[in-house]
Amino acid sequence: xxxxxxxxxxxxxxxxxxxxxxxxxxxxxxxxxxxxxxxxxxxxxxxxxxxxxxxxxxxxxxxxxxxxxxxxxxxxxxxxxxxxxxxxxxxxxxxxxxxxxxxxxxxxxxxxxxxxxxxxxxxxxxxxxxxxxxxxxxxxxxxxxxxxxxxxxxxxxxxxxxxxxxxxxxxxxxxxxxxxxxxxxxxxxxxxxxxxxxxxxxxxxxxxxxxxxxxxxxxxxxxxxxxxxxxxxxxxxxxxxxxxxxxxxxxxxxxxxxxxxxxxxxxxxxxxxxxxxxxxxxxxxxxxxxxxxxxxx
Length: 297
Fold this sequence. Notes:
four-stranded antiparallel beta sheet; alpha+beta; 11 helices; single chain; 8 strands
């Protein structure tokens, strides 16, 4: 087992993880999951293997055992083994100034769109609605935290002006589900692999793009107009892989997806991030026309 390496991705999503080296000198990442996680992890393994088999080499699939298993069990837990790539840490928030990083992320989504054709016929993927998610979250906040409910209610009212009615007609597609620069293994500004696929599924086409842009903005609100975001949006829109109906409400979708992150901060009782989300949502609403103009929407 190798102990002096930096393993990227969230450690919370596994029971434990370690890097090992085989006899040929190849490094592998071993992840341990509880048996309750097996159905989700199996779905991820099948999906990523499909993408990898259709040419998306930046999706690292689990290695199969000689019995053909992706996630073998030992005692009461299951294990996944994938190639380990050693990357370099992004300098935050300086990476927001890199148009090349934005281009690399756009190219990944463009390649993923092509590789994912037919995946929903091979794997039973979940369908996600941020509209349903938000209303459920507000029901829970009203029940358990009235102050937070009141704080974020104006942002819900803003989305209810037109976004919520339009949402159910957004074109759907396959999405990574949690795409942002920290879920990527980088070698300086070169994208080596995209990790953390457990939220993958069928969602509105612009989901990944909106999540990525929102993560840039929470890093630094000025990031919404910096080269990483502008280059990313320019490149991905030039390929026309998403229907215009999704782009029409893109800034609103960026705002809506922040409620998924808010849910995470509430779970962790992270008061600082809860306040930051409220401030960031306000910035989006107050500058929504500027954003649409700056993003050529």
